[in-house]
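To illustrate this point, we now present one chain and its tokenised fold:
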Amino acid sequence: MRDLKYLVLCLLIFSSIYSCQEEEVRYIKPYILAGEKNEKGIVYYDFDPDYGFQFNPPQSTSEYFIDLNSDSYSDFKIVFFGSESSGQGNFSNKIIPLNNNEVVVLESNKSWADTIRFNGMIDANLLWSDSSVLIYSYIYNDTLGQNHQGVWKDASNKYLGLKVVNNDGELFGWLRLEISDGTDLTLMEHAGIVPLFVEM
């Protein structure tokens, strides 16, 4: 009988200690601010030096793959194309989401990537596309003139909203880039949300 009381007492103590332990819960932040990079649950990458796409006349194509959440899988592909001949040229930059990931696009033109200001909210309330999206294109012809498409011409300190869709859910992120002279695309930095384990 004495042994039974001792066993019950031990079980009560163990149960009390276990119930007081903090439990870890997996949390995914449902948004990210453009330019945000120092908070917990965010992975950040700085292109150092900045990565610029090089045009090699008369025609060239360059690609760069982005792993936004640092899981060793490519999430987006940036493609630069340039072509130039006597009196005319054609240059374009686009982003292609991979594996059902998505990019923020303009409401007025869903095939164009939108710009997001510094500290702008990137979340589910924006307009998203999982298709290939134009960042910027520039066409010139000495006879017909120039044609610009997209909203990234000479954009400075602007961000591209990105979203990784996987088994973790929706992981929002951003890419900072610049386009100058109508043709030069430069990648500068990116960041994305990753799952965070917090104690409850």
Summary: Residues 159 and 176 are 5 Å apart (CA to CA). The chain has one domain: 25-199.
